[in-house]
Amino acid sequence: MSKIVLIGANHAGIAAANTLLDSYPENELVIFDRNTNLSYLGCGTALWVGRQINSYEHLFYTNKEAFEDKSAKVHMETSVESIDFDQKKVVAKTKDGVEIVEHYDKLILATGSVPIAPNIIGSDLENVQFVKLFQDGQKADQALADPNVKEVAVIGAGYIGVEIAEAAKRRGKNVRLFDAADTCLNTYYDSWFTKDMDKVLENNGIHNHFGELVQEYKGVDGKVTTVVTDKGEYAADLVLMAIGFAPNNTLGKDKIETFTNGAYKVNLKQETNLPDVYAVGDCATIYSNALEDTTYIALATNAVRSGIVAGHNVGGTPLESIGVQGSNGISIFGYNMVSTGLNIAAAEKAGFEVKYTEFEDLQKPGFMKDNGNVKIRIIYDAKNRRVLGAQMASTEDISMGIHMFSLAIEEKVTIDKLKLLDIFFLPHFNQPYNYITMAALSAE
Ligand SMILES: Cc1cc2nc3c(=O)[nH]c(=O)nc-3n(C[C@H](O)[C@H](O)[C@H](O)COP(=O)(O)OP(=O)(O)OC[C@H]3O[C@@H](n4cnc5c(N)ncnc54)[C@H](O)[C@@H]3O)c2cc1C
Ligand SMILES: NC(=O)c1ccc[n+]([C@@H]2O[C@H](COP(=O)([O-])OP(=O)(O)OC[C@H]3O[C@@H](n4cnc5c(N)ncnc54)[C@H](O)[C@@H]3O)[C@@H](O)[C@H]2O)c1
Questions:
Q1: Measured in angstroms, how far is the CA atom of residue 158 from the centroid of ligand 2?
Q2: Which residues form the FAD/NAD(P)-binding domain (predicted)?
């Protein structure tokens, strides 16, 4: 029997805890989390704040009691302040200032990520906030309910920014979306796709300010009123900041080996360089099959999988992660985009000699009603023809197709293997000369 201490009870920590409690109940598990809630699905923030779903109630999928029922000791609203890795001891403080000391045989760090705080004057003004925690969602929701809040500025047109800009627009606000890059979602998609999403945003009334750098927030009586950029000044009653996540590495950064961005470096078993210390989710690195190297990708899906892997290793069953492709998707005003692996910029940055093939067509035969256009691009290594990435976009639900490319990247499939791949045909779903086949066939 081992005593296991787990720090952080959100998606990664929960997956690790459930794996341990369900498969290795003989161990003792102590869980710490500094928040009031656990298991909040951030992916639902924009849906709820934008009133595409009525409330936040179902955005939590478990609670403290569920872990206590399985005999875990759970300390909520208790922040771990320090770890003595030599003495195998963690020191935590409850919200009332009471110190708790726990020794461990094995430690799992699941402390997640923190939003990157841009260095902008006036960031401490009222109604300037991040969009990460449930509490952030509540604050944004309340601000949007205020009829005096008419102008909303969103900083960062990545996944959170684009989603929350849509939400604010759905709440009837005048929305400006700022990004340093010259298009939205630039880290996930090539401009052939992002330019379409830029148009979708504009057509739905969002003002895109791309290639524009925010420099200052000005306010009156402590409350934000204005966003100042290198190109102009704009009224803003609410500023929502989303320029990415950084790993929350405060507890271990001095002792544990870290990646370039500070994430705890882990191997395929989620082990850090310190014996009996594991790291999972957004605070840790991950192995990318596209890069064939270690990288950092903050996604709930990765968090859950890494938590399961760590849970088994800590429990005593050796298990290696199979790596990830960073598969992701977004749906904005009915326009869907999905991607996996590397886009062209990321592949070139990683040193690949890149080729790509693309195709655009109706999803279904022309005689079918309710039919939409589909765009697909497949990126491959010019030298060994290995698939490195894929992107697809449509008003249709094309989401499931990207999983095939995820597996293709994982299994190092070449573009040529996809040319005559057996893909079924039924008019309700696709065309006999479907877009995946057509893109692959036309690869140079
Ligand atoms: C608005 C939004 C939308 C998103 N949408 C998606 C999506 O659609 N798909 C997707 O795959 N991903 C999405 N993500 C990303 C996803 O939420 C994160 O990748 C995921 O939450 C990572 O889980 P985690 O458990 O590693 O870290 P976190 O969720 O950051 O959790 C870390 C936990 O550790 C606790 N903690 C930290 N330090 C301490 C300490 N010292 N003591 C005690 N407790 C501590 C925190 O309180 C927290 O509960 C979204 C994120 C946001 C914010
Ligand atoms: N649908 C999904 O899968 C989903 C949804 C939300 C969040 N997430 C994940 O959560 C994490 C955080 O999301 P996010 O949207 O904060 O990050 P992100 O990395 O998706 O986007 C950050 C954006 O901010 C921009 N940026 C960076 N510095 C800037 C600056 N100084 N000024 C202006 N713009 C700047 C970047 O160009 C980028 O477009 C990501 O890993 C994301 O994948 C995923």
A1: 4
A2: 3-307
> What CATH number is attached to the domain comprising 236?
3.50.50.60
Q: How far apart are CA 32 and CA 92, in angstroms?
A: 8
User: Rounded to the nearest whole angstrom, what is the distance from the C-alpha of residue 112 to the centroid of ligand 1?
Assistant: 5
11 flagged as catalytic: yes
Q: Considering the domain boundaries, does residue 320 fall inside one?
A: no
- In the reported structure, the alpha carbon of residue 298 is separated from the centroid of ligand 1 by a whole-number distance in angstroms of 8
Ligand located closest to 115 CA: 2
What ipTM describes this predicted complex?
0.98
Distance CA 10, CA 108 (A): 13
Using the structure block, give the residue that is written with the tokens 């190297």. Answer: 293
Do 164 and 206 lie in one domain? The reply is yes
pLDDT digits (tens, 9 = 90+) for 22-57: 999 999 999 999 999 999 999 999 999 999 999 999
pLDDT at residue number 267:
98
Q: What count of Cα atoms within 13 Å lies in the side-chain half-sphere of residue 31?
A: 28
User: Closest ligand to 156 CA?
Assistant: 2
- Can you read off the two tokens belonging to residue 306? 């890494």
Cβ(243) to ligand 2 under 6 A? yes
